[in-house]
Amino acid sequence: MNHPNPAGQRSRFWQNFRRQKGAFRAWRLLQFMIFIAVFADFLANDKPLYCKIDGTHYFPILKQYTVDLGLSAWPADFVTRRWKEQDYQKAIWPPIPYAAQTIDLKNSGFISPFARQRTNKLSERHWLGTDQLGRDLAAGLIAGTRVALLVGLVAMAIAGSIGLLLGAGAGYFGDSRLRIHPLPAILGIISNSWIIYYWLVSRTYDLLEGRLINNLLMALLCGTLVTGSLYILTRTLQKRGQLQHGWAVPIDALVLRLIEIVSALPGLMLILGVIALIKNPTIYHVMIIIGLISWTGIARFARAEMIKIRSLEYIQAAQVLGFSDGYIIIKHALPNILNPIIISLSFGMAGAVLLEAFLSFLGLGLGAESVSWGSLLNMARSNVAAWWMAIFPGLAIFLLVFTFNLIGEGLNKALERAD
Questions:
Q1: What is the per-residue pLDDT across 10-36, written as a single tens digit (0 to 9) for each?
Q2: What backbone torsions phi and psi does residue 57 show, to the nearest 5 degrees?
């Protein structure tokens, strides 16, 4: 039996990727951006990394995490007085002693990076300038890095899960290999129809209150649980010999029609329409919506790769040995189709970052307390002379999108050479 070695293929794949100098440098740049996103609170914050007050040692940034989780609370002195006004015996501040939302009234009104600034010492200087309210642009860029990468990763995680599930299922089963007995099929149609009616039709007051995304997620969760339960019941009855015959489900044709429908929808208009129905849209709503409309390309890749390998000898041998379809897909098929999926995800992340920046530029998707590269660009519209408010966020967006695209190109060339 000719069984491909996924570990060996991946090793050759990454060796070829490292030979792509431009792509590998982009990968290093992405790692640097991930570092900034993960440690953003320690790089730019209006709280000290460490301080000593009245003989007591504090780590304010770490403590803030426990406060946000409700595990502790700040003493009264830290609530009534600003951190810059505390009487420190010793203090170690982040490289940028400002948070993204910290307002410096002495340097408000779009202060240029090269202009004279009213600061007590050099470490408090706003190296990239400030916006109209006096907020530090460098701190905003660091906070925006976390938002941009989070949108790309979460949105593509959602899109990848949906695309891989539907595409792999369509490619493996085709239109005749997946058979379902009439009884669980009818029960599934009835139960899922009731779930859709309950969560998306009957609860109109939730829609008026802007809870469309919450109801949609509940409908998907309930539908998945019901469908999974019916599938387990069907498999159990089939093993007992009580369900011998079933209907062939044209899952390939259904998935292709679904891909065509979603691809035909204008993505940007759909996002704007859905956000308009949400009472208080947040960045998490944007991530979910982008993920729900970005899975079609991944599904096509997964389907094509699965069709190519489902007739190979090692897949047929596993079927003859009596392994379940789920085991064959997860254990033998998926490891051999992940490389092209990773390439598609890389390009998809670039699109997700660009789309989120555009929505933030329009003032959609983010709350007033959140800062992203798009929202920073939006501030430049109120003062054309504030060139730093346009150049630095625009350059950050360009670098991240270019990085993802360059990585995707490198992965594509590495895959071609590995084959």
A1: 677 778 888 888 888 999 999 999 999
A2: -90, 135
List, in sequence order, the alpha helices (H) in 281-372: 283-293, 296-309, 313-320, 325-328, 338-361
Task: Check if the beta carbon of residue 318 is closer than 8 Å to that of residue 243.
Answer: no
Provide the whole-model pTM: 0.82
Residue 277: count of CB within 10 angstroms of its CB: 13
CA distance to 93, 121, 136, 184, 334, per residue, from 118 (Å): 19, 9, 13, 72, 59
For 14-108, where are the E strands, in sequence order? 50-53, 56-58, 90-92
Q: Which of 302, 278, 356 is nearest to 170 (CA)?
A: 302
String of DSSP letters for 199-214: IIII-HHHHHTT-HHH
pLDDT tens per residue, range 386-409: 999 999 999 999 999 999 999 988
On whether the CB atoms of residues 145 and 396 are closer than 8 A, the answer is yes
Tell me: domain 1-7+21-44+98-105+128-178+262-419, CATH 1.10.3720.10, correct? yes
